Amino acid sequence: MTAPRLEIDLTRIAHNARSLTSRLAHRGIEVTGATKAALGSPELGLALVGAGVLTLGDSRIENLERLRRADVPATLALLRSPMLSQLDRVVRHADLSFNTEPEVVAGLSAAARDQATTHGVVLMVELGDLREGILPADLADAVREILRQPNLTLEGLGTNLACRSGIVPDAAKMADLSALVTAIEATFGIQLPIVTGGNSANLGWALGDEPVGRINDLRLGESLLLGLDPLDRRPIDGLHADAISLVAEVIESKIKPSLPWGRTAQTAFGATGAPTDRGLVAQTLLALGEQDVDPLGLTAPEGTGIAATSSDHLVLISAERFDIGTQLRFVPNYSALLRAMTSPFVTKQFVTSNHAAQQVLDPLTVLASDHHGHRECIIVSGHRGPRP
Quick one: angle between helices 102-114 and 139-147, nearest 10? Predict the structure, then answer.
C-alpha cells in the first residue's frame, strides 16, 4: 500500500459520533459535525449522518460543494464568514452560513434573491476569544439589519471560544450567550431555533452538571475524529482516540553520529542550535516532511523519537535500524491531521475497524476535480435535517 497515507477508520469515528450525539441529546444539545479536517469527505459525512448527526459544517465552501455533489443527506452550514467573492456559491450549496459583517449579509440577500431561494444566517457573537464575532453592544443593530433583508432568515446566534486565545467556554460564557439570545428574542419578538455554543472545547461544560441554558448546538470536529478534549488534549471517556493514523515509509536507515560536524548556520526553516550528543544512533529517514504534516503534532511509534524534519524528510532516532520500505505508523494531533489531509502527496484511505479498505483516494485527483528546520524534540514512545 502506498505511503505516506492517512488511515481513517470510519467505524471508530461513527462510534465517537454516536456516543456524543446520544450523551448531548440528554442535555438538549444537537451536534453539527465539522468536516473541514477531512476536506469535506463524503465518506466521513455519510458516516456522521449514519451515526445521528443531521447537520454538517465546514469552513470552506469547496468542501460543502463536495458534500452537496455527493448527495450527503444533511443540512450544510458554512462555519466561516463567507467571502464576498463566493456568495453565489455559498447560497447555492450551503443551507446556512455564520456571519458577522453587514456587507456580507446584504450580498447574501442579493444572491439568494437572484437564485429565487432563501438562505439561513447565524450571527456570531464575540465573547472574548477575539476571533470572529459581533460585540454584544452591536448585536441588536446586526439583528435589525438581517431582519430587513429579503430572502434571508435569522436562524440563530453562536459564539466561538478556545481557538485564537484559548478562552475556556465555561458556564459563565454560555450563560452570557443564553442571556443575549433571550434579550434579542424579547426585543424583536422572534424565536431563534439555533444557539450554537462552540466546538469540541465545550464538551467539558456540556457533559457536566451546569445548566445548558439556551445552548442547543455544538460544532464538533476534533472530538469526533480524534476522541480528544481540545482544552487539554486528553482522551474523552468512551471515545476512540486511535481512529486516524499516519503511515510513512522508511527510505534510509543507518548508524550515524548524533551531532553534525562543520560550521553551522540556519537550517532550511530558519532554526539554529545543535542537537544533544547521544553518540552513535540508528537514524532513520522517512518520506514525510514539513510539506506534508506538522511534525510536532505526531506521536512516534514506541521505541522511536522524532529528532528533526526538513521539507521532505522526517528523521527518527531509535535503538535499531529499520529495513528499507518498512512502513511506520504515527498518531496525529489536530494540527498534524489538518496539514496531512491537505497535502496532495498524502493518500487518504478510509477503512473499517476490521481494517478492510473501503476506498483509497488519490489526493491529486481529488484536488483537480474539486476546483521549522531542525527541531530538537525527541518524543519516545457534529435538529435540522437535510435540504429538501
Answer: 10
Supply 356's cell numbers: 478492510
Instruction: Identify whether the C-beta of residue 208 lies closer than 8 Å to the C-beta of residue 202.
Output: no
What stretches in the chain show pLDDT beneath 70?
A: 354-388
State residue 387's pLDDT score: 44
Predicted confidence (pLDDT) per residue in 305-337, tens digit: 999 999 999 999 998 999 999 999 999 999 999
Helix-helix angle 139-147:171-188, to 10 degrees: 50
Classify residue 365 as left (phi > 0), alpha (psi -120 to 50) or beta. Answer: alpha
pLDDT score for 363 = 36
> Quick one: pLDDT at residue 365?
34
The three-state secondary structure class of 180 is helix
Beta-strand ranges (E) seen in 167-303 are 194-196, 217-220, 228-229, 234-235, 244-257, 280-286, 298-299
Q: At 8, which helix (H) or strand (E)?
A: strand 5-9
CATH class of the region 9-227:
alpha beta
* Correct CATH for 244-369 of 2.40.160.10, 2.40.37.10, 3.40.50.1100, 2.30.30.240: 2.40.37.10
Residue from 38, 42, 81 nearest 59 by CA:
81
CA 339 to chain centre: 11
Question: How far apart are alpha carbons 125 and 136 in whole angstroms?
Answer: 7
